């Protein structure tokens, strides 16, 4: 249950996933080939356990969702699990489960990702099911209607659950507005309602094809045999009719604005404070990773130390950078009991001011460098992780040095380079946009001091306030 | 939990904690002679103070993971100190006689390590993930907090706020968490498994310094702990570090046994939670066995068939075919004492919980009467085989699996001999365990009922 729901709600998806990097482990050798139709195959042998991990990325994703039809890519990803090739929905899931395998598709902002792992004895089944999902989805109308209704109910259920999970979705909609990064990948209750079966058929006809596909497999197989299997299964597939949508960069947005999402009866206020940040190709990513580790990226970070360790105001406070192909968001997020809302927000703002005014000293920088380097190897440990890393590198056109050279880049971070990046990336106080979710009746007046307040009920079937003309 | 990853509904139920025990079961390791599947490189030893340490060298990456299983959890609590085990978990990061509050984490992270911890009904488990270069630092930190833990009054008060915030996120502001807490408290009338691991609010606000000191003395003794190291280490170096850092910590008298045995349930129990909500929820709990009971493994296999994957019986019937629910999940608690087999369903807006309940009971009764198909049995075996290998793919998964088998099944070696057991369990065992557990008189039914005046009409 949770995995499906998390996929559905993932605003972030592949475009935003942010791998760790270090020096002491390097990427293993991989075989990479491009088929004549444009599909990229990446194969990595790893024989420690008898499993194979696969990660396929189909470029495109929710940025291409038409206006008013948010959730199209997400629902398409869910529907290709509901029957493909010779199998109907029940048979398709039985084929996966009976092998003890996993195989599921989910949309992100800039692509649909299919992830799975199989016992190595089932390599043939893995390739067959993957090829069927991509090339021969049934797109059954009854399955579509069930899935649309269930997806709408998943959003309602999510609003009954831990509110922190939905905060980034509200925040993206408020900060990015009509820009593609403002549209929830999952869609909203109202945009899902607007989707029709023909929209999904069109998606398959126009947005899906071999030249948009990267398949990375890693694990217990022999490269030559696996390459033959994949080539046989994918070489004859057509190219996509359309090119993936391109997204323009959105500049930093005006600050001093507050979105207050009302959840009556909430005993805690969940808050997100940020603005537009930087893109995947941000050139000084090592400096930025160290800065964010110190500011809000680990347990002893400045934010968690102030709001949790020293004051007991919250269970956790963090800072997050989302870096898709164009600038994503940079934000602080935390939560606290309703009557401490302003105290906690003011404290977070104070910590941000401290970061910008005082920078990061030697001792803290060294600690963060050790931390990032020390934790990195566990992100390259399993076949599934390797498949994901290689797929991501190819998707963003990054070379292996993006990972293999990262350790030395982390070691090279200096006080000057670190403080320059802080100035550039973290917004100043008057540039901040606030998204608060809690009991509006209690906190409405006191949060006016952060800017002009817009209110939205959590039961509103969308994540943004409707423009007046609707 | 010390920290949580935001974003999983199921984590809410982790406050009940049992699903945190990974579903890892054994398969035969290839290249090992039949009858002895235990990898030869695993070694274990017990210090004179009673601390058992298990070491599994694995040099795939230059990192190490440490798990310390402390046999203390919700079952060791009583009214007035509910939640204390979990609170104590937090206090284990908050200062010793030689280190100020916060220094434990600062030192560990500066050495490249990270950590977390979780508390269940049965155990409190501390986890460190670190580069092998930090080995000496880790032993220093771990031995210091076991030998010299200190309680600073202001830190105790501050940490109450942290734990209450954790409770608000997991329980008070999450409808699944609210319902789960009430169902468990209803299912048990005598045994301490009835208490929420996070603690009742009044206890979180009220436990005292004396409670903490007495708890530390009783439970945080080396003879009440089991440590596991997996990764880029050798057994000899771990033994040397253990001798240097841990051997001098004195043993304590073993904690008193938990005496209360939950009496047999004599009829269906029901509990309703009314909450502001758009979606109703249905939970169903049955008394089942302890981790070491013979019927726990067959029940685990049965649960794979009932709720694991979209082809599972309950998902296929209730979510796909009949659309009575939008999601269904289930697990059994595998603890020291008999626990629960637990099902949780979210219904669509306006869904009829009584229809869903009747259908769920009917589907479970069908298994009790007719058992499962050969294909389902084979599926359960394959799922458990693949889950085993998923666990073996990381040093973290290996440490979790070794520790859980050692603590809950009496020996880590059993991790490697379960494949034969799984193969030997046939349809009749599954049918029989269903018949013995899934009885209406053994059930507690929980309903989350959306408050009528907030039933949230659909705005178009």
Helicity level of chain B, as a percent range? Answer: 40-55%
Fold-level CATH name of the largest domain in chain B:
Cytochrome Bc1 Complex, Chain A, domain 1
Mean pLDDT value of chain A: 93
* Helix content bin of chain A: 40-55%
Q: How large is the share of residues in beta strands of chain A? A: 15-25%
Shape of chain A: globular
End-to-end span of chain B in angstroms? Answer: 41 Å
What is the multimeric organization of the chains shown? heterodimer
Write down the domain tally of chain B: 2
The CATH architecture of the largest domain in chain B can be named as 2-Layer Sandwich
Q: What is the typical, i.e. mean, pLDDT of chain B?
A: 91
- N-to-C CA distance of chain A: 35 Å
- Could you name the CATH homologous superfamily of the largest domain in chain A? Metalloenzyme, LuxS/M16 peptidase-like
Which residue ranges of chain A are poorly predicted, with pLDDT under 50 across at least 5 consecutive positions?
1-23
Please write the string of helix (H) and strand (E) elements of chain B.
HEEEHHEEHHHHHEHEEHHEEHHHHHE
CATH topology of the largest domain in chain A: Cytochrome Bc1 Complex, Chain A, domain 1
Secondary structure tally, helices of chain A? 19
Find the count of extended strands of chain A (DSSP E, 2+ residues): 12
Report the biggest beta sheet of chain B as strand number plus sense, adding barrel if it closes.
6 strands, mixed
| Rg value of chain B | 23 Å
